[in-house]
Write a structure and sequence with these properties.
With 335 residues, this protein is of the alpha/beta class. It is built from eleven helices and twelve strands.
């Protein structure tokens, strides 16, 4: 069997240092990959005049698996979000954001283990009909939900629950008010739920979900929802386990997947060897699970857990006083 080639986008700001850390960890765990490095974001803009050069798109399409650091989309007119562009271009319809509690973080909760699965290409983020009236007084945007899109993400969520031996899927919606779009999503997800009698299906309105996540997060297992709600809820979930530094994300399509740190590029601490690389290390663990390399994923997760729990060379956000390289070294030693 030929070696798996991974497309690597190091990203902007703290991206290169935390992605490098994750690759060292993958190597040390015995993952025999080839890596093809390509640029996107500000780095690419400086080199090529484009945020997403064609060569980068070609590499993503060719290798099918991408590991990516945080990218900066410049603020202002004419720059489309790079992440949104990638999701559309490769039809990465499922956004998967797992959060798990780690002993040793400053999180307020223990025993959290939630996967948020969000539809990634439709809803309010489809970018349709964004207009501002000529007098600047009225802005409009339209949300598009299709039955096919809703079915696909609901099936993905229930299949994930079954594969991961999860007990429950919570369908999060706002069908009481958004009767058309959220209504179609809920109706379709209900139909899908009936094909999975082995998994409990629960329905919850999005505002109540926010409250329940804060009051009793342990009740949740897998959450499936539309794009905008999923974006907000997955960040709320990250806050339950110690923040975005502990939250990876995967964008998955039919035959292509991008694994990433979900936090920003933190330009204020770039190059200062301060960043916590856990999110990209956790994204690599997601990538290994996707590639059915569960033993390697487990090995890295155990090492990471141990470093954080023992407080050995942890970064500032984890209560320590060490930098990216020291933290990475602590993980490498355990591997």
């Amino acid at each position: 069997m030929s070696k798996q080639t991974i497309t690597v986008i190091k990203g902007d700001g703290i991206g290169p240092s935390i992605v490098e850390a994750a690759i060292q960890v993958l190597e040390k765990a015995g993952c025999d990959f080839n890596y093809e490095y390509v640029d996107a974001g500000l780095t690419a803009l400086e080199k090529t005049g484009e945020l997403l050069p064609q060569a980068t798109l070609d590499a993503i399409a060719r290798n099918k698996i991408t590991l990516k650091g945080p990218l900066t989309t410049p603020v202002g007119e004419g720059f489309t979000s790079i992440n949104v562009t990638l999701r559309k271009k490769f039809n990465l319809y499922a956004n998967v954001r797992p959060v798990i509690s780690f002993k040793g973080t400053k999180a307020r909760y223990e025993n959290i283990d939630i996967i948020t699965i969000r539809e990634n290409t439709e809803g309010m983020y489809s970018g349709h009909g964004q207009t501002v009236s000529e007098d600047g007084q009225t802005a409009m945007a339209s949300s598009i939900v299709t039955k096919e899109g809703a079915r696909r993400i609901a099936e993905f969520a229930f299949e994930t629950a079954r594969r991961e031996k999860r007990k429950k899927v919570t369908i999060v919606h706002k069908a009481n008010i958004l009767k058309s779009t959220s209504g179609l999503f809920l109706k379709t997800a209900r139909e899908v739920a009936q094909q999975y009698p082995d998994i409990e299906a629960q329905e919850m309105i999005v505002d109540n979900t926010c409250m329940q996540l804060v009051m009793n997060p342990q009740q949740f297992d897998v959450i499936v929802t539309t794009n905008l709600f999923g974006d907000i809820l997955s960040d709320l979930c990250a806050g339950l386990v110690g923040g975005l530094g502990m939250a990876p994300g995967a964008n998955i399509g039919k035959d292509c997947a991008i694994f990433e740190a979900v936090h920003g590029s933190a330009p204020d601490i770039a190059g200062k060897n301060l960043a916590n690389p856990s999110s990209v290390i956790l994204a690599s663990i997601q990538m290994l699970e996707y590639l059915e390399m569960k033993d390697k994923a487990e090995k890295i997760l155990t090492a990471l857990r141990d470093v954080i729990a023992s407080g050995d060379r942890t970064t500032r956000d984890l209560g320590g006083s060490f930098g990216t390289t020291d933290f990475t070294q602590a993980v490498l030693e355990r591997l």
